[in-house]
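User: My advisor, Dr. K., asked me to get a structural model of this assembly before our group meeting. I'm new to this, so sorry if the format is off. These are the inputs:
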Amino acid sequence: MATTALLVLDLVGTFAFALNGALTALRTTRLDIVGVITLGMITALGGGTIRDVFLDALPPATFLDWRYLAVAAAGGLIAFLTGHHLDRINGTITVLDAAGLSLFAVTGALKAVDLGFGPAQAVIVGAITGVGGGTLRDVLIRQVPSVLSSGLYAVPALVGATVVVVADLLDARGPVAAVAAAAVCFAIRMLGVRFGVDAPFPPGGRRREPG
Amino acid sequence: MATTALLVLDLVGTFAFALNGALTALRTTRLDIVGVITLGMITALGGGTIRDVFLDALPPATFLDWRYLAVAAAGGLIAFLTGHHLDRINGTITVLDAAGLSLFAVTGALKAVDLGFGPAQAVIVGAITGVGGGTLRDVLIRQVPSVLSSGLYAVPALVGATVVVVADLLDARGPVAAVAAAAVCFAIRMLGVRFGVDAPFPPGGRRREPG
Amino acid sequence: MATTALLVLDLVGTFAFALNGALTALRTTRLDIVGVITLGMITALGGGTIRDVFLDALPPATFLDWRYLAVAAAGGLIAFLTGHHLDRINGTITVLDAAGLSLFAVTGALKAVDLGFGPAQAVIVGAITGVGGGTLRDVLIRQVPSVLSSGLYAVPALVGATVVVVADLLDARGPVAAVAAAAVCFAIRMLGVRFGVDAPFPPGGRRREPG
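Assistant: The format is fine. Below is the predicted structure of the whole assembly, which you can bring to the meeting.
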């Protein structure tokens, strides 16, 4: 795939997660502008940073390339300035999170392929990239991360990454395949949210012993 | 030590931590199958991933080698399917955690030795490997990590790593020394749990000022 | 700047953060000596470890160089033994945190410059180094990190790092510039604490929807 197309998708994902993280900060806790933008940037840049640790591609691209930093900071600032106008902030947060998840699952997997990793590793790194930033966000604001509590969160990331890796194996790589894979991930995630779908729960009822 | 023996011990530790993390997820929070297996895999693979960051051995072996991924996923799945049959889930969780702690303290220290690090660094990396996965687990489910709250948690890991590093310095390296060192760590940890042993508390009484 | 001067400032910052982390452990939760020293060491060594991941300078200096380990352990032990004598433990914690923040912002930025990174990257790494250890500390004891909740926490770190990087660009590098930059950071941070200064809050009032 053209490097430019991959970069564009990655930056769109960064922007979506920066808006998402900053809006989450506005909704959840009483944070000032620095806290809001910081949480936006950590959400936006965290997944790619963890990805580059796993791929031994340090220093992380999220930190070396000013475009990621600029897009993440801009997303945080825009959310800070406009978030109070949003009537349905929770819905917006969910859509942005699904968008970031989808784009990062795909771009993370493609970066692994480009660096010569095998298909299984590429799928796993894609999923880690997708869920990484949101997991850092949730830990910092003391919520149980979505990747644990929401059945259809890791699964769509794995599916999206798998679609794009299989397309690559079939020589069908390109912007179209990448966008299609991200759309598949996004659709599964949003359907899961819309219909409250969870993966199966443990057999034998919910166990809740005192710790 | 034969590489095979080290690999076997490392995989057994991975399996113990995967069971432990998944059972903790079953006990603590209402997670579906994906959340349970995810927490099992993070617990199982987290310590080795942090170890490889400290040893500059990226990409992490836990991620490159499919055996770690397979064992971790299998452990999480088995715990998900069978956890509700366990009468004494808390006791099982404690034993599995001590087993993972012990094996990873030893294999982590040996990996550092193999890569040419000095004895002090090997002991520290061993302890970090042992406590790392459980610490990630506790942060994700919002508990104070055992390494902070339980006096005899870091100490047995340090002792086990020290035993195996000293054995290596004395040319007594081998599977026997490794298993013996892990057994020492396991015994100290379980005795601490059994008798509620803690390390000394601060002099002057427990201080609890409002933050 | 002379390498020795940089090392001294880095070790002073390590010591300040070790005292701070251990005193925080004494104040916040019921931890024994191992827990107190562990939290002190994580606070003291965490920022430099994250810095070295971002700078691709692994294995981390905090782990390879015994002086960092010794200073961090000593700081934790001293705080454990003497913390109960402190009348104003909260004030002491705040001052030590500001000192560590200031010194690490400066030394982190200088390390990035020495490794050939550009000015923007050096400033960012300096800020990350300054806030990193305290953020790990707060996550482990389940508090919202200062970098999110306190307006003037990231800002003074960015200012201190900028001052020392600009001085370097102007060929005015040296111990004097480093100490002056740290003093600027420290002064801004302490003024912010003293007068309860925050950065601007979101327009339109504080939003607090149920999650």
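One thing worth pointing out at the meeting: Residues 3-194 of chain B form one domain.

User: Perfect, thanks a lot.
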